[in-house]
Amino acid sequence: MPVIPNFIERMALFRLNLAPAVMLDFLGALAFRAVASAWRLGVFEALSAGPLTATELARRIGADERGTVALLDALETLGYVKNRHGLYAATAMVAKWLPLLGDGIGFCEMLVERFQDLDESVRRGGPVIDAREWLDRRPDGWREFQAGMVALARITADEIVGKVKLPADARSLLDVGGGHGLYSIKFCQRNPQLSATVFDLPEGLEVTQATIAAEGMGGRVSVQAGDFWIDDFGSGYDVALLFNIIHANLPAKNVELLQKVAGTLGSGGLVVILDQLAGEARGGTSRAFAALMGLNLFNLTGGQAYEFREIAGWLVETGFASPRRIGLLKSPGTSLVVGTRAAAGTSGQAEETSDERTGSGLRQ
């Protein structure tokens, strides 16, 4: 939970400038580290079965009691646990959201650590180390990465598949760079006639089979290892997903990739893009989230967040009609952009069919 100043503190920090507000960012950094440590130690898992004293919790997680008390005191001030007469319990926020985030907290830690390179990335105009090489060098890099992507998917996947209405005759879906495969699984679960192929690097597919098996979708969701810049996708697909892909590429490469995707689809086929969009977020927290994620993309891959008009232009250029944007309530600043493979000689103007600012969330 963020460190939220009370009224007097807000006056002193923001209105009167009597104290350095930058210290809130410092406290936020420490707070995240404390929560990540609690997750790794098993604090929240232990408390999920019911309230415990600090002594009981320390024994349960195999930790020093004095250190456990210090950690619990910090977690209480942050809103992660509550203390009633010496019994500690997880708050409702923890019970609802941390199981969804799961091991994705480890990936968030990796991204925070990677920000140590930010000054050099800004100086040189790109990442200090290629993202793939960075993950290769870490003992659990790819596993942590996929865990982070799964955590994001758990939060947004149901909303996404609810807002993307596939053609009634859609039978096959291609998930480009689909990694964990959860989005493909969710689309297939919602559309019983659909089967899916998850296309990704071998490293990206390490957890995919386990996810497919856990969801009981082995008969309808398959994997194909390859590099989407080099290897053939095949053809005859009705839907193609490009989720969290375009932000890593310069515009010319995105046009190249969309041309390749268009070749896999017949007339009327859909391409569905999911990504952070520049200039879409409203509200202080949403704007900060979008801006910091854009900075993270630059530091991690040398990429950036693009505006809807840019993406729509690429789609029209590569043969997709009437590109449209669909906002997501559960991920401010992130949107879907959908294009329909046009028949020869046709094109369409871009439009917006949803807006997270109002929560209209219209289906296509």
How would you describe this protein?
With 364 residues, the chain is an alpha/beta fold. It folds into two domains: 90 residues, Orthogonal Bundle (Arc Repressor Mutant, subunit A); 202 residues, 3-Layer(aba) Sandwich (Rossmann fold), CATH 3.40.50.150. It is 47% helix and 17% strand. It contains 15 helices and ten strands. It has an eight-stranded mixed sheet with strand order 5-4-3-6-7-9-8-10, with helices on both faces. Strand 8 and strand 9 form a beta hairpin. Helix 2 crosses helix 5. The longest helix has 23 residues. It is globular and about 70 Å long.
Overall body shape: globular
Number of strand elements: 10
Biggest β-sheet: strands ordered side by side in the sheet: 5-4-3-6-7-9-8-10
The CATH superfamily name of the largest domain is Vaccinia Virus protein VP39
> Uncertain regions: pLDDT < 50 for 5+ in a row?
353-364
